[in-house]
Amino acid sequence: MDKLSVMNAFCRIVDRGNFARAAEDLGVSSALLSREVKLLEESLCCVLLTRTTRTMSLTDHGRHYYDQAQAILDAVGQVEDRIRRHSGEVRGNLRINAPNSYGQIVLSPLIPEFLTQHPDLEVTLSLDDRVIDMIEGGFDLSIRIRAELPDSALVARRLSTVRQRLFASPDYLAQAGTPKTPTALRDHATAAYMLADDALHWTLTGRDRTEVITLAPRLRVGSSLVLQDLLIAGFGIGALPDFISDIPEADGRLVRVLPDYELPPRYVFAVTASRLGSDAKVTAFLDQLRATLAP
């Protein structure tokens, strides 16, 4: 037994008046309790309980140990009760890490309302397109957009699917022409996202075939928002996730290229460190994010 368990067992023995009743309460054997008390007495170099076949009584040292142990157990219980109560409250500082583009387009618009709903909460939002160590960074929640996540001690929950398609500006297509087949992309200017799983190949899946196109991009960028701006400015053809492309496509600044083809989907994962379940502030944020992502 550890120290707190020994303290609890000793106090239960004293409260119940004998080893047998205490052992029954604790779900252990009387022999185990007797052995633990003996080891405790040896570690303290004094006798805590005087025992005969019929009676048991505390020594002065035993009374002092009982009083102090009971105070410690009460204090630990109060701390645990307080933490359990607070773990169910949306309060404190919620530390979130997310990709730059997703943080700006999806997360930042919902944070003001979220903070209004939870006035005792603070939010720290860190944006980084590279995958970081969330434990080392001290984050409660990491949003990651990947085709899949490697096995780890972290807990990942899939929130939504991200579709990836090819786009260009109307001006670029008017000048360079519109490719009709995946192989025709080789005759066009392309821009690549440096942090893609494979920045030099596009795997395009159509209705009845999949083609892998090798790129020779004139430009590689480490930000999908910069890539969007370059495509709108007429640089060439590039791949964008739907949460970035939806608005410029809807307002006509970008046009789908090869609309019958898509790149492999990626998924939005909410990653937390604990397998015991998220605390209240993480759960509340994910509930609001899911509501935002719902069709």
TrEMBL record:
HTH lysR-type domain location: 1-59
Keywords assigned by UniProt, alphabetized: DNA-binding, Transcription, Transcription regulation
InterPro entries per record: LysR-type_TF_proteobact-type, LysR_HTH_N, LysR_subst-bd, WH-like_DNA-bd_sf, WH_DNA-bd_sf
A GO molecular function held by the record: DNA-binding transcription factor activity
Signal sequence region: none
Stated family: Belongs to the LysR transcriptional regulatory family.
The protein's name: DNA-binding transcriptional regulator, LysR family
The species this protein was found in: Litoreibacter janthinus
